[in-house]
Description:
Elements: E1 7-10, H1 15-26, E2 31-35, H2 38-48, E3 53-56, H3 57-63, E4 66-69, H4 76-83, E5 91-94, H5 115-123, E6 128-131, H6 138-141, E7 147-155, H7 158-171, E8 172-179, H8 184-201
Parallel strand pairs: 1-2, 1-4, 2-3, 4-5, 5-6, 7-8
Antiparallel strand pairs: 6-7
Helix pairs in contact: 4-5
Amino acid sequence: MSSKPRIAILGGTGDLGSGLARCWAAAGYDVVIGSRSAEKAKEAAATLGGSVRGDGNIEAAQAADIVVVAVPFASHESTLRDVKDAVQGKIVVDAVVPLVPPKVATVQLPKEGSAAQIAQALLGEGVRVVSAFHNVGATKLHSGDRANCDVLVFGDDKDARAAVIELANAVATRGIDGGVLANSAAAEALTSVLIGINRRYKVPGAGISITGLS
């Protein structure tokens, strides 16, 4: 029996969610993608192959050890409210970026500080929220190889951060401990900066690399 955690990805039918699902499944993880429409999730899972399966958001969250939230910011709070009971006692990885159209290349953080801080406040102390995967381009995830970038991981629980760093190591160059959850504002803001860089330099997915580490 695999010792790897079972992962649910809410918003798993989108570019980021499906890319993460593809990579984790290839790395031997049991992955279920969630959507508000179970049928849509099942159809998307069939295109990803491997062990990926699809279900409704609540059912996917109930079945998983670690729940990744990769929905648009406009759906962030409603999705979290829907699955609040299902994720108690679990790690929830918030990969949501507070983009506000049409100026998505302009940093517009919420008054609460970050999307991850909103998630922690909404889900309560029974959930360990970790923030990660904001600066990984979906194009890289769908390329068939690990993304050639670092993943900053934030959270108030050290063990939860370590668990998510291991997940990052499976899909990117490496996961890097970025400290407490409040620091997630830096990575969320950086996403808008990278979107602008992509546009100006006409590249599909600018990423980040932390220098000076062994």
